[in-house]
Amino acid sequence: MLLCIIGACGGAYAQKAALKTNLLSDAFLNPNIAGEFALAKRWTFDVSGQFNIWDLSHDRKWKHWVVQPEVRYWFCDRFAGHFVGAHLLGGQYNVGHLDIPASFLGTDFRKLKDTRYQGWFGGAGIAYGYDWVLTEHWNLEAEIGIGWTYTRYDRFRCAGCGKKIEENKPHNYFGPTKAAINLVYVF
Fold first, then answer.
1. CB–CB of 51/82 below 8 Å?
2. pTM of the entire structure?
3. Cβ atoms within 10 Å, residue 51
4. 162: helix, coil or strand?
């Protein structure tokens, strides 16, 4: 009877939830946290959030908050091995006076050097990832996602001034929507 109780307790709590942080976001000083919860044998629900409220030197701005829920299908066991996911994302941003000399899939990041953008966004995407089991409770997870994002923004002449030069402008983006190397604690 004791073995039945121990077995039932172990199964009741094993791999039901996880708490994690994205080390890539941490490297860019974007505090973040995510939780993942079991839905079925091979299905989980992941929700992550990050924000950046720091003031950068030389009047640069890179403030934002993002929420990104995702449903995942695991090919073997949840919280281990290969998975695919479908995610949504949304948030707000205030960025400008950043020197990013690149144009990518219809988005010209070079415009961030001389102007500031403030607005909101929402989108959806798909992702692939892999989760390595390190110990009984610790995992390392890598994930990449692509998708579409729609945004509306106001554009300002400079990062610090309030002179608005465009208002309520729409923009569509297609490309990477998720990149993560997560340190995971599994309950």
1. no
2. 0.84
3. 17
4. coil
